[in-house]
Write a structure and sequence with these properties.
The structure is a single chain. This protein is α+β, with helices and mostly antiparallel strands. It folds into four domains: 23-92, Sporulation related repeat (Alpha-Beta Plaits, 2-Layer Sandwich), CATH 3.30.70; 98-193 and 216-220, no CATH class; 243-312 and 455-575, no CATH class; 318-418, no CATH class. The chain is built from 20 helices and nine strands. The chain has helices at 2-17, 69-81, 116-119, 144-156, 177-180, 260-271, 285-297, 299-310, 318-329, 334-341, 346-360, 364-378, 400-411, 423-427, 429-440, 459-471, 479-490, 497-518, 522-548, 553-568; strands at 25-33, 49-53, 58-66, 88-91, 99-109, 125-129, 133-138, 163-168, 173-174. It is globular. It starts with a helix and ends in an 8-residue tail after the last helix. The strands form two sheets. The protein has a five-stranded antiparallel beta sheet. A four-stranded antiparallel beta sheet has the order 2-3-1-4.
Amino acid sequence: MLKTTLLLISITFATTLLLQAQERYTVQVGNFMDARAEDFSGLRSIGFVHAARLDDEVSRVMLGGYDTRAAVEKAVAQVRAKGYPSAYIQQVFLQEGMSVAVIQVGTEKSNARINWQRYSAAGELYAIMGVDDIRIVTKPYAGMEEARKSLDGVRKLGFKDAFVRTVNSMTLHRLTEFETGIKKALIPLNIQKETAVAQPSIAVVPTGYENTDQRVKSPEAIPVIPPPASPANTGGMQARSTGSVALVQAPAIRGNIKRRSALDLQQALKAEGAYTGSLDGYYGNGTSTGYNTFAASNRQMTRYRSLADNTQQPGLSPAAARFQKALDDMHSDAAAVVEVTTAGGPLAKAYQAYVLFANRGASNEVNQLMNTAIRESFQGKTMRKAPPFDIRSTYAYNNLDQLLLHIHYLHSAPGNAVIAPCWLAQRHPAEMARVYEAYAGYADADFPFRACDQFATWSEIAMMTAMAQDLGVNTAENAAAAAKRAKLFSSPPAPQKEEEVSLENWNIRVWKGLDTWAQRDPLNKDLITAFRVVYHQSQVRLEDHFMDKGFNAEAARSLALTTLQTMVGHHLQRFL
């Protein structure tokens, strides 16, 4: 019975992922420390200001919802004119969402002062932003029938014009204290008497991962997807298109910002005759052309590009490789969803639990599948280091955070080589940022962080890391660095001054050591020349990734160096 139910839900889940694409955009104002809505009052005349919490201190501030490119381009120009020059357009991919039922309780002008205390009677609130208005709705229901049963109760609360509607989950934004000013959490609406769900006798929170929210709720759908690269200044480098990698786009490079990384790249290219322009530190068409020319003609670059493009994930049996491919394709392929959720083994059970949770929320079936998967993954296995949670306990999965964390723990189990797919971070950015945080202080060679490395899908970075492996003597995966890099991709913290100084010193010492080694042999020099070019090209690209997230050029440089250190630092340790 459970397998049949899972199969039907899997097909439904896959079908909703393949909804016809439509246009939808927001304006990304930037990432801010201790952001408050009143700090952005000057933007209210343009659209509704809302935010998504990235961590305890940093929030991503956004504006409005727009159904046409022309409307959002007008809005982003106005936002930039108001003093936010790094604001950019974020496309929301509606095909990534699913159809959900909600009750709409009101519509307000986006620039009006809204009486949120009145709306709080409806419980947990979500919003659908338009150009000039905001539609206020309840949390998603399990289906239209459940929503209709609650409609009379909602109307009795004073919302006489309330009505049931279906919406794409990617258009919903969960309202919090930032938007409403209400400090206490909105209490979930409980019009109908709910049937108590029997939970396992023990519900344990894993060590070092606090989870106090025991309410059953649907996963949030906050669209935070990196903006697609524009044709200009892409350096000829696109994301490789295998599996879930196709979700990841390298950012476009800004040509109007003077920076040291671009100057270093120009100097390296000029020394090889690939760049003839001025050494001005601006990454323009000349620098882009110079890099592409060098990358196409240099023997080392050609070799490592081929190596990076053809490197297969190690340690996978043919059956595991098929499962990995299906897992990577779940975000877009109905057949892949069915293949994963009907396969055998602990990871298959974990993703069956994920599909059930995504469609129905918390349940005994989810708990049963996950607890069985944990037992099958860890019990009886020899481990030199205890995992960061009690594998003997029984868990209740009442929220998506704990479910995603434990799925990643399963990927780290002994004998497993399958990695978590990229689309999890794309679909659940806030929850996955907390998973990365939990891993950052624990992952090591005995408990590796096995998840998609989204930076590594950029061609220049794939070449750089391949070169670094040959330069170094330590080729073992640095699990803690991988976890840190995953967090840097999705929700980077603002760099501290002392960190900036330390990173600059590290960068200087690395290149001093590499240059000394290069002088010992012409073959050494050839490899270091190619590595220098691809390193600085990667650095420029990384800086634009962080500027796209709202950081200024100085902070973006530090974050780029931090990311480079996680990628190549352990390989290049011998040169320090």
